[in-house]
Each structure stands twice: as structure tokens, then as C-alpha cells.
Design brief:
Number of helices: 20
Number of domains: 1
Structural class: mainly alpha
Mean pLDDT: 86
Order of helices and strands: HHHHHHHHHHHHHHHHHHHH
Strand content: under 5%
Low-confidence stretches: none
CATH topology: Growth Hormone, Chain: A
CATH superfamily: MFS general substrate transporter like domains
Shape: globular
Length: 417
């Protein structure tokens, strides 16, 4: 029975059963190493003499292979099942690239790693199906909040990365971190496979596709495309996925280069920023967001977009060597993330037809990524010209997102009920 004095998220965590429990409980084994290396990725590339334009191009290469993987993701997920698909392609898209990143020597190592890493788009589909298909819709936002929270709490280990970078310098430190990431993530993939069961929808789709080739399973994609674009709800889900996919890619790729290259902040601080960010996100997920449930999707997301625009403006206007301004950016961005991303994730799931979730999500992702591919190179080209410009690009996209949400008030309010 629920404990009256427990926090709703704590109670939700304890109440998890089956696949949602396995997915959430094993997530730190992925989140901890991911939080160690992510702040330093672009700086690591720059230390190996890659240019901003090459770094942006690698982001576009990753998007291209993600789009290709997404095209097959629905069919593969239905054919192999959610459980087996997640194991195979988690190893190919994370374990293998981690080894390539650990031993990278030049631009081409990163390109090959990006090609393998792009296959994570298949597991994004299969893993999400594992997480949500047997879960109660009424707790969907809480489940995604727990997923985000488990990843963000993992950054309490980030000082380890800061110490390594400070003592060993960026390249040897990153090689060690990537080797640890390989071990931790591979353990997570194996444990998830052991403790997950195939979903009920997954069992049905495996039976329906038994004896069929992947190409035959994909044979109905034309009709699925028509269904997507005939549904205002699913078009709206496409738009949200594209907007936040592009803006998160720009922030993740170019924040490190901006702070170390333009603001002249020491590299080891890049491991400290995620700790502050995650503590703020954890506070909002625990304390603030449960109080906002009654407001649905629209108002919290619009408020979050205002915070996103504000934090980017603060960063663009920052004078050099002003560390406190970066902390202001981190605070505002963390608040924005807390307000927007759990709701965006759950909204996208709720707007998709459940009977064909795997194939629809796969094809929607193809469309989103195909649209997003140029933005990696565009942001790299802008950064080569002026490292503030990728963040100006993001502000423009946030304004567009705000207008789209305002124009779909009734639809978003309906999704909440």
C-alpha cells in the first residue's frame, strides 16, 4: 500500500514492477559513465586536432546513421522482439563505439564510431516499448521523470572525471573513462536482458512477423507514413521530437567548446557543471514538478521554453572568464529541462497510436532525423564563424516551439485529460 508520507516519485519508484522496474533500476549503469564523458566529448575531439566544422560534421554523420537505423527500427523490434533487439543493438551502438572512442587517433575513428553509435536509435525504439507497453498510462509522466532523474543523479560521480582530467590532461583521462564506460554499459545491457520480459504487444508482433523477412515486415511502411501525416496528433509529436532533438544536439555538442574556447573556462570545470545541473533538475523533479501536474503539458512547457531562451541569452552575452555567469546559465537550463523534457517524452508517447507503436516511432524518427541532419553541420559552420551563433540558432527554434504550443492549446489540454 502507498505510504502517506512518501514523496510521489519515491512511491512511484517503489511501486514499479516488471519491465518498467528493470528499465529504471538498471539505468544508472548507463547514466553514470555517460555523465562522466559527455561534458568533455567536443574538447576531447579538439585535443585530437579536429576542427569545429569536423565536430559538427560528425554530429551530422551520427544523425544520418540514426535516421537509417530508425527506418529499420520498427521492423527489427517487431521481428526480434523488444527484449532481444535491445540487447543486440545496445551492444553494437554503445559497447563497440566506446572502444573506438577510447583508442581514437583522428577524425576517421570518430566517424566510424558515430556510424555504430547511430544504431542506438533502434534501441531507443525497442527500449521505450519495453518501458511503456505494459505500464499504466496514468503514471507515464512519473515513469519518464524517474528515467531522467536516475540519469541526472548519476552525475554525483562527475568529480572523478574532473580529477582525472586535471591530473592526466584531457586525452589520457578520456581514454580511461571510455574503457570504464564500455564495462559499465555492457553490464547494464546484460542485466536488463535477464530481468526484462517480452511485452504483450511484442509477443503479438513477433507471432505476426514470424517467418517474414525484414523487408516484408517493412512492406506496410507506406500506409504507416500516410497514417502519421493524416493525424494531427502524430504530426505534432514529430514537430516536438525534431525541435528538442536539434536544440539538445546543439547544446550538447557546442557548450564545452564555447565555455573553454570563448569564455576561457578551465576544462576540468566541465565535469562540475553537470553536477550542479543535475542537482537542480533533481530538486525540481522531486519538489516542484509534482505540484505542476494539474497544469498539464502546455503551461509548463511554454514556461520551460522561456527559461531555455533566457539561459542561451545569458551565455551569449557572457564576458570572458566569468564563471558565475556560466552557473547562471546552468541553473536556468536545468529549470527549463525539468519543465519541458519529461512532458515532451510522455506527450510523444501519448500522441502515438499504441497498436503500431514500434513501426510508427521508427518512421517518425526517420522523418525527424532526416530533417535534423543538416543542423549538425550548420551549427559547426556557425561555430567556426562565431561560437555564439549556434546558441542564437537555438533561441530562434525555441521561439518557434513556443508559438506552436500556443497554437495547439486545445490539443495539448486534451492529451492531459
Amino acid at each position: 500500500m502507498p505510504h502517506r508520507n512518501r514523496h510521489p516519485l519515491i512511491q512511484s519508484l517503489l511501486d514499479l514492477r516488471g519491465n518498467p522496474r528493470a528499465c529504471v533500476y538498471t539505468e544508472p549503469l548507463w547514466g553514470i559513465p555517460h555523465s562522466l564523458y559527455t561534458p568533455f566529448v567536443s574538447v576531447y575531439m579538439a585535443a585530437l586536432l579536429l576542427t569545429d566544422r569536423q565536430i559538427g560534421l560528425i554530429a551530422s554523420v551520427s544523425l544520418f546513421f540514426r535516421a537509417a537505423a530508425a527506418l529499420f527500427s520498427g521492423a527489427v523490434t517487431d521481428k526480434l522482439g523488444r527484449k532481444m533487439t535491445t540487447l543486440i543493438f545496445d551492444i553494437l551502438s554503445w559497447s563497440v563505439p566506446c572502444l573506438l572512442w577510447a583508442f581514437s587517433q583522428n577524425f576517421w575513428w570518430f566517424v566510424i564510431a558515430a556510424a555504430f553509435n547511430g544504431m542506438w536509435q533502434i534501441t531507443d525504439n525497442s527500449w521505450t516499448c519495453l518501458l511503456v507497453e505494459d505500464a499504466d498510462k496514468s503514471v507515464m509522466v512519473k515513469i519518464f521523470s524517474l528515467v531522467h532523474l536516475s540519469g541526472h543523479l548519476a552525475v554525483i560521480f562527475a568529480p572523478v572525471a574532473a580529477i582525472l582530467v586535471n591530473r592526466l590532461t584531457i586525452v589520457p583521462a578520456m581514454r580511461i573513462i571510455y574503457l570504464f564506460t564500455f564495462l559499465s554499459m555492457t553490464a547494464k545491457f546484460i542485466l536488463l536482458y535477464i530481468y526484462c520480459d517480452e511485452t504483450e504487444v511484442g509477443k503479438v508482433r513477433k507471432r505476426e512477423t514470424a517467418g517474414m523477412s525484414i523487408w516484408k515486415v517493412m512492406g506496410g511502411y507506406g500506409q504507416i507514413f500516410k497514417r502519421i501525416f493524416a493525424s494531427h496528433d502524430m504530426v505534432l509529436a514529430l514537430v516536438f521530437a525534431a525541435i528538442f532533438g536539434i536544440t539538445n544536439m546543439v547544446m550538447g555538442t557546442f557548450f564545452g567548446l564555447f565555455t573553454t574556447g570563448r569564455l576561457l573556462i578551465a576544462e576540468h570545470y566541465l565535469a562540475i557543471f553537470p553536477i550542479l545541473r543535475s542537482l537542480i533538475i533533481a530538486f525540481f523533479l522531486f519538489v516542484v514538478l509534482p505540484r505542476l501536474d494539474r497544469f498539464g503539458f502546455r503551461l509548463p512547457m511554454q514556461t520551460g521554453l522561456l527559461f531555455y531562451a533566457a539561459c542561451h541569452t545569458v551565455l551569449i552575452l557572457s564576458p570572458k572568464e566569468t564563471l558565475y555567469v556560466v552557473f547562471i546559465y546552468i541553473f536556468l537550463e536545468a529549470v527549463a529541462f525539468s519543465l519541458v523534457m519529461p512532458r515532451c517524452d510522455s506527450l510523444i508517447v501519448l500522441l502515438i497510436e499504441p497498436s503500431e507503436r514500434a513501426r510508427i516511432r521508427g518512421l517518425m524518427t526517420v522523418v525527424v532525423l532526416a530533417f535534423s541532419i543538416p543542423f549538425g553541420y550548420l551549427a559547426g559552420w556557425l561555430s567556426d564563424a562565431d561560437r555564439r551563433l549556434p546558441f542564437v540558432l537555438n533561441i530562434t527554434i525555441f521561439v518557434v516551439a513556443f508559438i506552436i504550443i500556443a497554437a495547439n492549446k486545445k490539443r495539448l489540454d486534451k492529451a492531459h485529460t
